[in-house]
Amino acid sequence: MSLAIQNDEKRLQLLKDVFFKTASHEEFQLFVHACERTGLDPFMKQIYPVKRWDSTLKREAMTIQTGIDGYRLIAERTGCYAPGREPTFTYDANGKVISATAYVKKLTKDGTWHEIPATAFFDEYCQRTKDGNPTSMWGKMPHSQLAKCAESLAIRKAFPAELSGVYTKEEMDQSDMPKDAIAIENGVIPEQKPLISKEQAEDLAKILIGCSPDYQGNFWKFLKTQIKGLERLEEIPVAMYDRIKMGAKIQNEKYQRDLIEGEELAING
């Protein structure tokens, strides 16, 4: 076994340890393939995997992401790319940006340069908070954020083979981002913690139904202080499950005893 292969194996193992502690073997192989095809370095955070809840699959699915600089680098390496003119914008009657159109240049085999435009609409890409308002980045820099989305579309339109299956962060902001979106934006790849199964969530839900209304309300308040952005029981980490279930089970049994005692007092009274 050559030294080069040994080094590759070590890097592959490091990649798996850093990004794929809970991912499947197939997801890992797909990500490695994307790294090789794009020539981006995951250790320099040029490309990274992100897990998102897929409402169609009813489970978390992996998305492979890069930044706009990663897209530009991939296009640049083809030798057929050049930056286009400045993006253009459209506005509504109140002066709010509606869309951005970005332009890139591509050299075709006949030696001709072509301008490739692509348009992104604010409402389709803007990342919003739970109350419907744009997040801080989209609120402060709507032109910059939307222009990146439009440029990503234009570059992928010009170089589909090189960029198939890889998306920029700005394009994916509007989707079901993981709770660690801010960390990713700052270049920190969060550890992917394994979540409980659907069956475990259903089991916990059955226990909660038998608890007092006050406990149920406090239960969700407590969970949301421990797990940022929690919306479903399926988002509870495996490491917390046994403790949470035990606490709910104790409250369930106590409430059921109280109900029985209350009924007995009413009958005897």
Q: How is this fold's topology laid out?
A:
Layout lengths: L2 H17 L5 H14 L8 E8 L4 E8 L1 H10 L3 E3 L4 E4 L5 E11 L5 E9 H4 L10 H5 L1 H17 L1 H4 L2 E3 H4 L8 H5 L12 H12 L3 H14 L11 H31 L1
Parallel strand pairs: 2-7
Antiparallel strand pairs: 1-2, 3-5, 4-5, 5-6
Helix pairs in contact: 3-6, 10-12
Structure commentary:
The chain has 269 residues and is of the alpha+beta class. The chain has two domains: 3-185, no CATH class; 198-268, no CATH class. The chain contains twelve helices and seven strands. The strands form two sheets. Strands 3, 4, 5 and 6 form a four-stranded antiparallel beta sheet that branches. A three-stranded mixed beta sheet has the order 1-2-7. A hairpin with a 4-residue loop joins β1 and β2 (59-66). The protein is elongated, with a radius of gyration of 25 Å. The N and C termini lie far apart (85 Å). The model is unreliable at 1-7 and 176-190 (pLDDT under 50).
Can you tell me the overall shape? Answer: elongated
**How confident is the prediction overall: mean pLDDT?**
81
Q: What class, by secondary structure content?
A: alpha+beta
Order of helices and strands: HHEEHEEEEHHHHEHHHHH
Q: Give the number of helices.
A: 12
Low-confidence regions: 1-7, 176-190
| Strands, total number | 7
Whole-number tally of structural domains: 2
Determine the N-to-C terminus distance. Answer: 85 Å
Strand content: 15-25%
**Major sheet: size, sense and barrel closure?**
4 strands, antiparallel
Radius of gyration: 25 Å
Helix content: 40-55%
